[in-house]
Amino acid sequence: xxxxxxxxxxxxxxxxxxxxxxxxxxxxxxxxxxxxxxxxxxxxxxxxxxxxxxxxxxxxxxxxxxxxxxxxxxxxxxxxxxxxxxxxxxxxxxxxxxxxxxxxxxxxxxxxxxxxxxxxxxxxxxxxxxxxxxxxxxxxxxxxxxxxxxxxxxxxxxxxxxxxxxxxxxxxxxxxxxxxxxxxxxxxxxxxxxxxxxxxxxxxxxxxxxxxxxxxxxxxxxxxxxxxxxxxxxxxxxxxxxxxxxxxxxxxxxxxxxxxxxxxxxxxxxxxxxxxxxxxxxxxxxxxxxxxxxxxxxxxxxxxxxxxxxxxxxxxxxxxxxxxxxxxxxxxxxxxxxxxxxxxxxxxxxxxxxxxxxxxxxxxxxxxxxxxxxxxxxxxxxxxxxxxxxxxxxxxxxxxxxxxxxxxxxxxxxxxxxxxxxxxxxxxxxxxxxxxxxxx
Length: 440
Ligand code: NDP
Ligand code: HSE
Fold this sequence. Notes:
The chain is an alpha/beta fold. The protein has 14 helices and 18 strands. The strands form two sheets. Strands 7, 8, 9, 10, 11, 12, 13, 14, 15, 16, 17 and 18 form a twelve-stranded mixed sheet that branches.
């Protein structure tokens, strides 16, 4: 057998520890598949003394000098499972420029500055693989960048954040509010101590940028993604969705479009949305992820599985390690970044979708007509109107609750409608505005 492929592992936390375990448990099979054994040259961490359980690895391999480890001549492949922008960016650029192959799970960095990494990979001639960065264990990026390269992808719709899917699924199943469901997610270890990146949609937005870049051969960064989280979704919103035969999911939607000048564009957004129970994504529960891809020739494809967790994520990392190791042994590298289409990213205001708007209004003659008039002035067509008693108490304070669902309209038109509604005396409050996707 040829000499080993030597690995530098940066990070040994939730994902890194499972990478070490899999490398140990599968070493013979991995060696057979690659044609050379994999060997850990070193493991960079922040705290040398941290308890990492009974990891099957020599303690002497640990170091706090990540850069020193990367620069070693006997390192072929750098695996980065630390996360964050710096120092990870500096490390990976250094490794790639030096001709090493990189495998990373770092979606935040790829969405923030994937360009720097791709350029460094092109300069050094090594591979840059990042299957684990989106939807954990689910093989998704390789299908997008290889299997579907002969087709034209039109739309990618996904649930790509496990924590928020757990929270929304719990709200749907039990009627719990957001805070209560978040508490449960934290107790069960799904949500982190600081859940901001998940519940505010930053994590999903980074993944959306990566998916859109690959699907549309266009550079899309985190800043190009319209992002809204789930913190404002209430138990009443979920009940309203259920009344319409829907549920609420945090969706990432990346779609081709055409702007008013006739140029092809992409739009990329992350926000909570009502989807009908009959939609394939509606049945994706718990902390699972799923991504629905629509392509010209392939039609509709759905990818489903575990999007987070040490072992599932390590599975994707190891798949990449096998691929880049084989490439090194064969003296080849994978195709580089494909961004030739360079489509313009369309502003959110031009995104077309439907809306579910709940209002508390004065319950007196002419109110419905006045509210409908505001929608009409902004060219937003109403599909259905439902009236009930505000707060569920008949005639409470003489108020009524209106639930209006629109036909498809530009986001900017709906936003302007809501601003004008909020300024009306007869409107006590606009209690919620949710987008409706998937033909509900
Ligand atoms: P953890 O926080 O569990 O682990 C991070 C590791 O990085 C720790 O071992 C830590 O060292 C080490 N580290 C942090 N800062 C430094 C530093 N300056 N120098 C050297 N080592 C450092 O993170 P995860 O394993 O959960 O996530 C890793 C990556 O994988 C992230 O990019 C994340 O987004 C991504 N990912 C995670 C998933 C998951 O389910 N957890 C799913 C998909 C992707 P020490 O142990 O000493 O503290
Ligand atoms: N925090 C992320 C999630 C981890 O909940 O999906 C996987 O990227």
